[in-house]
Amino acid sequence: MVSVGAALRSPLFWACVGMVIGALGQLLSLPCFLGQLREGGPYFVLFWCSCLFNIFFWTLVGVRSCTGKIPRHMHRQSVTWGFQGRLLLIGISDAANGILLVFATANTPNDLQGPLLQATIPLTLVASYFVRHVEKRYRLWQIVGAIVTMIGIFVSLVPALHSAATHKHDAQFPNGTWWAAVFVFSCVPAVLMNVYMEAIFNKYRDTSTDSYDKYLLLAWESLYQVLAMVALWWTDFLPGFGPSSNFHDAAHSLAGGFKCFFGAESGCQYAALMGILFAGFYIMSYVFTAIVADTDSANMASLIAALANPLSSVFWIAVPQANRWCHGASISRVDMIWALASLPVILIGTVMFKAFEPEKLHDGYTSIQGDGKDEGAGGDTYGHGYIVGGMPTHGKSVQDKFNPPPPPMNGYYSNGSGNGNSRHGARGDQASYQRREWA
């Protein structure tokens, strides 16, 4: 069992803290940014932020490449079809999530948005089970931990659910109940983005001695995101879906957003500041989400993100002047009490999910049983025991641990690594590890 002190010193803990701060900053700065925009709609916010992401991440990639922190072989592998296909899917998913969520938010009652958004956690669990190169297998207590986290989230939503039940006019859909389905469906691309991000980290780690650079991944993702945003501009004036009534209104809104951001419109003196602040928190959330997905999993990222909503309610209550200045929603002390009560429940569920997770080794293998013993070798030598048609064979030593195994008959193989420290092959206890065969 990991001690509290060791947990507080772990990179994962601080990545989770950074992720919560980034997500919380997004929730707090977005209404302030929108409140300062006299011109420009939600599409402008999404498009301009995706442009800022490219400026930041590609500049950072250039600096890291020149200083040798991103090796050339990583760039070469990034442009292969296998990597580009996954990076393209992540970028398109990010753009689709933004458009669907922003447009659905304007057509979904506030009291119902919180409960509908919780579809993210079970969808992430399901996607992580089926998506290739991730393929999680869960223990019972992990599922219980995820359920406890969701219960904690609903505890924070008790006032909203009560309002929706007792004030039916607040829970009515102004433009049709089908927007509830759109709101829930917006969670799907967000889930795919995080799960496939984890898949890329796992894939690269399995074929190289280093980890895939997170900033390079986010740079490619941002490039495909902004291209997808350009391609999806027509959704802004799609009848019955986008907020603009026609092409002319959409173009005027987009141009007005840029004018307001750069100070060419009156009453927009804080628009640039709030926009940069929002983009900065967005970038922070991206970076730490990638770190959590790499060091742990997309499931952990979805559970940790649940802390941001109740924390934002506490902030608006604690700083009412900021809520008024940002034209935020009305939040009572009852909301704050339920939000505070939800935090320990969410944390307990998240800790349970992590505590009962099967051990994940540094090279991406997941330990599922520990009953194997074989002649392991130290240094760079690994012992491999292949399962062919379900029957294990004797292990053999190979000098390169990344040498591919012979084609398996049943689609997977078992890989045991010796614990010996001698290059001549000291005997060491082994565990059996299972992973899917890579394409």
Short description:
This protein is mainly alpha-helical and 439 residues long. The protein has helices spanning 4-9, 11-36, 42-66, 72-78, 81-105, 110-117, 120-130, 140-156, 158-166, 178-185, 187-207, 214-231, 247-261, 271-295, 298-305, 308-318, 320-325, 333-355, and strands at residues 366-374, 382-384, 387-388, 391-392, 396-398, 412-414, 428-436.
Written overview of the protein:
- With 439 residues, the chain is mainly alpha-helical.
- It folds into 2 domains: 4-355, no CATH class; 367-436, no CATH class.
- Helices cover 61% and strands 7% of the residues.
- Strands 1-7-6 form a 3-stranded antiparallel sheet, with no helix packed on it. A two-stranded antiparallel sheet has the order 2-5.
- A hairpin with a 2-residue loop joins strand 3 (387-388) and strand 4 (391-392).
- It is globular.
- It starts with a helix and ends with a strand.
- It is found in: Membrane.
**Outline:** globular
Number of strands: 7
Structural class: mainly alpha
Strand order of the largest sheet: 1-7-6
Radius of gyration: 24 Å
Q: Spell the H/E element sequence.
A: HHHHHHHHHHHHHHHHHHEEEEEEE
Mind summarizing the main beta sheet?
A: 3 strands, antiparallel
Low-confidence stretches: 361-439
Strand proportion, as a percent range, falls in 5-15%
Q: What is the count of structural domains?
A: 2
Helix content: 55-70%
Average pLDDT works out at: 77
Number of helices: 18
Distance between the termini: 36 Å
Subcellular location: Membrane
Protein name: EamA domain-containing protein
Family: Belongs to the CRT-like transporter family.
Pfam family, one: CRT-like
